[in-house]
Each structure stands twice: as structure tokens, then as C-alpha cells.
Amino acid sequence: MNIDSNLLYGIYDLVSTQSFENGEQTATRATSGMFVFRRDQRLSVVSGATDWVMAYTGSFKVEGDILQIQVDSCVVKELEGTQIIRKIEKLDGKTLVLSMEKKNEGKRTVIEWKKVAPI
Fold first, then answer.
1. Residue 52, strand partner residues
2. Which of 11, 89, 107, 119 is the S-S candidate for 102 at Cβ 3.0 to 4.6 Å?
3. CATH number, domain with residue 20
4. Which residues contact 77 (CB under 8 A, 6 or more apart)?
5. Number of domains into which the chain is organized
6. Exposure string over 56-72, b if 16+ CB within 10 A, otherwise e
7. Are 86 and 71 in contact (CB under 8 A)?
8. What is the pLDDT of residues 2-58, one digit of tens each?
9. Average pLDDT over residues 62-91
10. Other CB atoms closer than 10 Å to residue 12's CB: what's the count?
11. Does the predicted model carry a pTM greater than 0.70?
12. Residues in CB range of 78: below 8 A, 6 or more apart
């Protein structure tokens, strides 16, 4: 699937996070969050729940249905300088659904975002 990255630019609010292990839903982690995709190929994200937070900034590119994020700064210092890969499951100008898999562990996470403002 080829993704039109022009549909990606904007500000998104977190709708849901679902984690699965061996096909069974195991958890819902983040309860709030915001994702910003700028036209200069920069992004920032923050999400969290009552007992944890994740936040990072970096650059991104889209190849096919794969979102590649180069992390510049992160609250988890070990992630700085690394690349995060997400599959774009859905992008229609209003909804963004990303997934990540750890196939060797049988784990999958699906995150849904709702666009609240275009950029």
C-alpha cells in the first residue's frame, strides 16, 4: 500500500492503544497523547497514563506503508539516535492507525490517532 504523506501532516489526539500477545488483547496503556507531523518532515509525540510517560522528537519519512522515525531526543535516553518503525494500517485524513510487532515474542500494539488540526 502506498501512503499519501500529504494526508499525514497535522496534529493528532490519541484515541486508543491496544496491546496483544499471541492474538489475545492484554492491555491498554496510554490514556492520552498528542502526535504532531510537520511538513518539514519533523515530528513530536507525547503520550502517557497515570504511571508513565513517553515523549520524543525527530524526523520521519514514509516508504510504502512504513513510517520510519529517526529519534533525536527522547525521555528514554537509550532511544536517542535510534530508528522506530511503525506500519501505517490506516490513514484517511481524519484517522491514523499505527501498529508495531515483535513477531519473535508474539506481541503486537495498535495505536489509533484522530486528526484535530491540519498543518
1. 49
2. 107
3. 2.40.128.490
4. none
5. 1
6. bbbebebeeeebebebe
7. no
8. 888 899 999 999 999 998 998 888 877 667 999 999 999 999 999 988 888 999 999
9. 97
10. 22
11. yes
12. none
* pLDDT band, residue 96 (cuts 50/70/90): very high
DSSP the chain: ----GGGT-EEEEEEEEEEEETTEEEE---SEEEEEE-TTSEEEEEEEETTEEEEEEEEEEEETTEEEEEEEEESSGGGTT-EEEEEEEEESSSEEEEEEEEGGGTEEEEEEEEEEEE-
Say if residues 48 and 54 touch (Cβ distance below 8 Å): yes
Tell me which residue range forms the domain holding 92. Answer: 5-118
- Amino acid identity, position 23: G
Handedness of CA 115, 42, 16, 101 (dihedral sign): positive
Q: What is the pLDDT of residue 81?
A: 98
Q: Which residue has the cell 492484554?
A: 26
